[in-house]
Amino acid sequence: MEAISSLVIRLTSSNMALLLCFIVVILWTIDGFFAHFSQRWESLIGTVSSVITVLMLFLLQKAQFKDSLAIQLKLNELVAAHEHASNRLVDVEGMSEEELRILQKYYSKLSKFAKGQDTLTESHSIDEKHEEHAIRDELEQELHKIGEKDDPKPATDE
After folding, report:
1. Which residues, in sequence order, are CB contacts of 143 under 8 Å at separation 6+?
2. pTM of the entire predicted model
3. Count of CB atoms within 10 A of residue 103's CB?
4. What gap in Å lies between CA 33 and CA 19, rounded to an integer?
5. Does residue 158 form part of some domain?
6. Same domain, 19 and 58
7. What is the pLDDT of residues 84-103, one digit of tens each?
């Protein structure tokens, strides 16, 4: 199944496939004039085009997922291999949307902080602690609050 879907994706994403589809649509239209756009003709065209659309949708989803996963793995390798990068970002795709928004807010603040630096080539990581700002502490507090909401402590009988 993997080989077939990969082959179909490669074939349908070519310029020749686009040209072929354009020609088929023109031929269908011309055929419609000869068939006087009958009910049978419209039903056949509607059915065929619906089936092709649904199949292509799933093929596109599969291709996009595979590409996205490959890119994510490559980025994970770069983050894991870089000495100063935060390894907590290796599994960033597994975070909740709320956690991602907090990280985005952190990087936005970090960007503003970096603009005030003397050099633009100085790197900063999410796990790096700077005396000049408390951005990381804010991040930790916000992520901790989310963790408490998602994983409440069980009540104990005392």
Report:
1. 99, 102
2. 0.56
3. 19
4. 22
5. no
6. yes
7. 777 777 778 788 888 888 88
